[in-house]
Write a structure and sequence with these properties.
The protein is an all-alpha fold. It has a domain of 39 residues. 56% of the residues lie in helices and 0% in strands. The longest helix is centred in the C-terminal third of the chain and has 19 residues. The termini are far apart. The model has no long low-confidence stretch (mean pLDDT 80).
Length: 78
């Protein structure tokens, strides 16, 4: 049984080669620094805001509902 020319096995060598070539071309283009700056949050406040929003979203995903202790009277008895 012969191997198919299109069969890639555990890795797609053609795609990996194409990616490597595109990456090398991008690096040589001199656009890496600008792309990194464009990807950065515009300022520290924006960065902090994004981190807080991500943390809040994760907390909401893990939340099971409101804490019943929040609805108890101050004496501690229901």
């Amino acid at each position: 049984m012969g191997k198919s020319k299109d069969l890639q096995g555990e890795g797609n060598y053609d795609a990996a080669r194409e990616f490597d070539q595109a990456e090398e071309k991008f690096v040589k283009s001199g656009k890496v620094e600008q792309a990194a700056r464009d990807a950065e949050p515009k300022n520290e406040k924006e960065k902090e805001k994004e981190e807080i929003e991500r943390a809040e979203e994760q907390a909401r995903e893990h939340a099971k509902g409101e804490d019943p202790q929040l609805k108890r009277p101050k004496g501690g008895k229901p």
